[in-house]
Prior knowledge:
The strands form three sheets. Strands 1-2 form a two-stranded antiparallel ribbon. The radius of gyration is 23 Å and the shape is globular. The chain folds into two domains: about 5-250, Serine Threonine Protein Phosphatase 5, Tetratricopeptide repeat, CATH 1.25.40.390; about 255-505, no CATH class. About 40% of the residues lie in helices and about 5% in strands. It has 16 helices and six strands.
Amino acid sequence: MKTTTITMMLFLGFLLGSCETTDNTILEEEQLSIDNLEELWTEIQADLPRFVELTEHIGSKATRVEYMIFSYERAFGNERPPNIEFNKNAWESAYNNLLPNLDIAKAIATQNEERKYLGVINVLYSYVLMKMVDYYGDIIFTDLASNRPTLDSGEFIYDEAIRMLNEAIENFNEAGDDLATDYYYNNDFNKWIKLANTLKMEAHLNMRLVDPDAISKFNSIVQSGQFISEINDAFEYRYGSGLITADPIHPNYDKNYARHISDYQSNWLMHKMMELNDPRLRFYFYRQINCTPGATSTNGEFCEPREDRMRCSIQNRPGHYMPYMTFCGLDNGYWGRDHGNEDGIPPDGFFRTAPGIYPIGGKFDGEELTPFELNTGGSGLGITPIMLSSYVEFMRVEVALLNNELNTAKILLESGIRKSIDKVIPFANLDPDANLSVVPTTNDIDSFISNRINEFSNANETDRWNILSEQLFIAHYGNGTAAYNAYRRTGFPNNIQFHVDPNVGPFIRSLYYPSEVVNANPNIDQKPNVAVQVFWDTNPPFPNFPYSN
């Protein structure tokens, strides 16, 4: 019987130090059928949002889009409990699930000349590879058949990913059968082409510090018009689609609404949005109380400090904080934590602010100011945003600022903010009990955007970068990877809240490799610390960059 040998990204036992092996390296001819391809493709589509969620939390926490506990070294190192080992979980998601299945699916699609499948497989393959480089730097790619694989440079892998994206576009333009299921674009291959081009734009922007032609390549794609530019071009996973039958709701809803509230929210993000009167605030966060210890209530009354509920409310403000940086309790019942706060877990589950209706499908904040009941709000039928039109506009603002095209930057900034808000506002309809009378009006939104654009127009160069970066961070709530990349590229915003520890050590420039991988493979050396920079990050090393460590 004819057999086909497939070099798969199954790392056998050596990758994670287990004794498990696989005998799937040889596939019989009948296993190369289209039925197997469709089954694999369904699994791949379900695995992608899990990978995105595992990685995005790293970027979000590092950039204050989410709350981060501990130092960067401890938060993202190898010594955390298994359920929160960020570096291990992200690696396993890629190398134990997504990449092996993509490799097998690609072999089957090639054997059966399934052009559309080859296109989508290459797009997702390239996405995962580039995100792994963004977080780890050099990773395993070409030497996968070996029991002792070596690392490939991040630069080489980026080049390979771009090549895959170009191949994907070629396949989309060829005649061929539709996918059996397409939970992302419903077989609209023009949108898949836009996504492929947008991922190339993102890659070129990341490489602008190491490739003198990167901006020219970026602009060439913009001029083609074939990139994600409209809200309905969004590349996102929508929970409740029926694809993930074992876990049909957003994982953060499961953590915070289906059981009990688990997460603290970022004080920096809540304070910034409250300070700007951001219309997205009540969509991102749900308050359970009107009074935070040591702050002012929604009624304008002082809230007494409570050591038993919020220990920092009786503590002095960190001496290294700048005057404009928020500390501890926020006004109006926003109950979160400062960047790096290491306090334990007091009895505050019915007081702390919960994640809201966007993007996880939680509760819309209609000023109820009361604890929520389990399994309420949007029932977890939110999204994992992967690439939105607003994200692309902020990329374009960065390029415009680099080219000193201030009017273009202003137009694109307005477009990016508006597209972000327009994406968020309809989520109020997911909550059947939402108090829609407090949904921001068109005038509220227009006023907010006008204020941001006026500030941008009248700002100096540094403040323009800060305004852009703040709005980029806010828009990327729900997927902080691009915020993390932008922060390493630019160092902005340079006015975000410092870590509470003045001697916190270096900012995380890349993740450690999982200890099991290093211990099982003498060809992979562990990094000395989290300050090791990925290939496209040529900014000054610690302690000179970034400023707001």
